[in-house]
Design brief:
By secondary structure, this protein is α/β, with parallel strands linked by helices. It is 34% helix and 17% strand.
C-alpha cells in the first residue's frame, strides 16, 4: 500500500449533496464530487486488511484494496481495470449501491469506513474521461445465438460478457429504451440516464444486438425464440407489486410507486403524457406507504413536484440509531437510514398500518391508520393493532411502495411452463438453468427484488453458465 497509515492520518470525507434549495428545482444528480486530491486521499485510507471484509460484503466480490491503492497512486487505468474484473458497470453501482462493502469495512468498527462507493464512481468517471473505457469487440464469433430478455442490470451484465466472449447476443426490451428499472424506476436525481446511454453506446459498438419495443411473450412468442436461439436467458425482474387490499383501494389518486416514478422519468426524457394521465403531487397531501428506497424515491420526486405535505409510513418498527449487540460488524447494520430525499422534507412514521381509504366524488381524500406493535408469540413475530390509536389523515395522493412479490407470471413465464419456487420466483438450479431446457434466468426474476449490484452478480454468473452450456 502506498500509504499504510492513511486511515490514521486522514479522516473520512464524503462529497455530500448539492444545496437543498438548489437541487429541489431540478432533477440533476444530488450527489457532489470531491476534487482529485481529496479522492486520492480517501482511497489511501484503505488498510489493505489481512482479511478484506469489504470484499466479503460485496455481492460481486470487488477487489477493493487493489483498486483503492491504484486510485491513491493516481493510476486510474489500473483502478478501472480492477473494477471491471468483477463489475461490468461501476458507474451505476458507484451512484446507487447502498454499499454493503462499506458496512463490512474494518474501519466501520469506528463508523469511519473507506468511501468505497464514491471512489468507485470516481474511478469509472476517470475511466471514461481518460479514454480507458472504450469499445472492445470480440476478434471472432462462435456462431452461437443467445436471446436475453430484459435489459435491467442483470440482463445488461449477462449480455456484456456473452458478447465479449464472441457469441451472437440479442437483447430484448419491452420498453422504448434499454435499462429496465435503472432507466424508468430510479429517479434522475440519483442516476442521470446519460450514464446508461454512455455505456450502452459501447455495448452497441461491441456488436450487441438490441430490440426495444419488443414484448417477448406478446409481440414475439417465447417458443419462437427457442427455435431460433441456442439459449435464452430471462432477466425480467420482479415486477409484480405488493398491493394493499383494504377498503377504498379502488379510489382515484392511489397508485403503485413504479407508475409514479416511471412516468416522471419519461417526462424528463421528453415524452408527452396526456394531462388526464399525469400523476401530480403538486400542492397535494402525499402519503407514501412503504419505508424502503422506492418509497424514498417517491418522497424526493413529490418534493420536486411541490407537494404540500409528504408523509412516509412503514408497518415495521423504527430501526435503532446505532447497531445493537445482536447486529455486530461486519454484518449489514440494521439501523435507521436517512436518504437525500428525506432531507428534502417529509415526515416519517413507523409501526403504522393503513386500515382503509375514504373518498369524495370517487377520489381519495383521507386515510384511516392505526398504530401497531409486534409481539413475539412462540418464536414468531405477530403484528397487533394498538387500541385507541386510530387516526384519520387528509390525503390527496397515495403511493404504494411496499415492494414486489415476484416476476410477472402471465405471458412469457407461463407460456414457457416454468417452475416457480415457494415465493413465486423462477426456479433455477446451481447453473442458473430453469426447469425448461435451454432457458436460464438471472437477477430479481430468480431471487426476488434485491440490489442492483446483486443483479449484476447474477447476470455475470448466468453468462458463465450459458457459456459453459454452449461450449459443451
Amino acid at each position: 500500500m502506498g500509504n499504510p497509515g492513511g486511515f490514521i492520518q486522514i479522516p473520512r470525507k464524503v462529497a455530500g449533496y448539492r444545496p437543498l434549495n438548489e437541487r429541489l428545482d431540478d432533477y440533476g444528480e444530488v450527489e457532489q464530487t470531491l476534487n482529485e486530491q481529496d479522492r486520492r486521499d480517501q482511497a489511501s485510507r484503505c488498510m489493505d486488511c489481512g482479511v478484506p471484509f469489504c470484499q466479503w460484503g460485496c455481492p460481486v466480490m470487488n477487489n477493493m484494496p487493489e483498486w483503492q491503492d491504484a486510485i491513491h497512486k493516481g493510476d486510474w487505468e489500473n483502478a478501472i481495470s480492477g473494477l471491471h474484473e468483477t463489475n461490468n458497470f461501476p458507474e451505476f453501482t458507484g451512484r446507487i449501491c447502498p454499499a454493503p462493502c462499506e458496512a463490512a469495512c474494518t474501519l466501520n468498527i469506528h463508523n469511519e469506513p473507506v468511501t468505497i462507493r464514491e471512489n468507485e464512481a470516481a474511478a469509472a468517471e476517470k475511466g471514461f474521461d481518460l479514454g480507458f473505457i472504450i469499445p472492445k469487440p470480440p476478434k471472432k464469433r462462435t456462431g452461437k445465438k443467445i436471446a436475453v430478455i430484459g435489459s435491467g442490470p442483470a440482463g445488461l451484465a449477462c449480455v456484456d460478457l456473452l458478447n465479449k466472449w464472441g457469441h451472437i447476443v440479442t437483447l430484448f426490451e419491452k420498453d422504448d429504451a434499454v435499462g429496465g428499472l435503472l432507466r424508468y424506476g430510479i429517479p434522475d436525481f440519483k442516476l442521470n440516464k446519460k450514464v446508461i446511454d454512455r455505456r450502452l453506446d459501447i455495448l452497441i459498438k461491441e456488436g450487441l444486438i438490441i430490440q426495444t419495443n419488443t414484448h417477448v411473450g406478446v409481440d414475439i412468442k417465447g417458443k419462437a425464440l427457442l427455435k431460433e436461439y441456442d439459449a435464452v436467458c430471462l432477466a425480467i425482474g420482479s415486477m409484480k407489486p405488493r398491493d394493499l387490499h383494504v377498503e377504498g383501494r379502488d379510489l382515484k389518486g392511489i397508485y403503485f410507486a413504479m407508475d409514479f416514478l416511471t412516468q416522471q422519468n419519461k417526462v424528463i426524457k421528453g415524452e408527452e403524457i396526456p394531462e388526464n394521465e399525469r400523476i401530480f403531487a403538486t400542492g397535494k397531501n402525499v402519503l407514501v406507504i412503504g419505508g424502503g428506497d422506492t418509497g424514498s424515491d417517491c418522497v424526493g420526486t413529490s418534493a420536486r413536484h411541490g407537494a404540500k405535505n409528504i408523509l412516509q409510513i412503514e408497518i415495521l418498527p423504527k430501526p435503532p440509531e446505532e447497531r445493537l449487540p445482536d447486529n455486530p460488524w461486519p454484518f449489514w447494520p440494521n439501523i435507521v437510514k436517512t436518504s437525500s430525499s428525506h432531507e428534502e422534507g417529509c415526515e416519517r412514521r413507523w409501526n403504522i398500518s393503513t386500515r382503509k381509504f375514504l373518498g369524495e366524488n370517487g377520489h381519495v381524500r383521507q386515510a384511516e391508520m392505526i398504530e401497531t406493535e409486534w409481539i413475539n408469540e412462540n418464536g414468531q413475530m405477530i403484528m397487533k393493532e394498538k387500541p385507541e390509536t386510530l387516526q384519520i389523515i387528509n390525503v390527496d395522493l397515495v403511493l404504494l411502495a411496499m415492494g414486489f412479490l415476484h416476476p410477472v407470471h402471465e405471458g412469457l413465464a407461463d407460456e414457457f411452463g416454468l417452475e416457480y419456487d415457494t415465493r413465486g420466483n423462477i426456479k433455477t438450479d446451481s447453473k442458473y438453468q430453469t426447469s425448461v431446457p435451454k432457458i436460464f434466468a438471472a437477477g430479481d426474476s430468480m431471487t426476488g427484488a434485491s440490489l442492483v449490484v446483486r443483479a449484476i452478480h447474477h447476470g455475470r454468473e448466468a453468462a458463465r453458465a450459458i457459456h459453459e452450456y454452449l461450449l459443451k
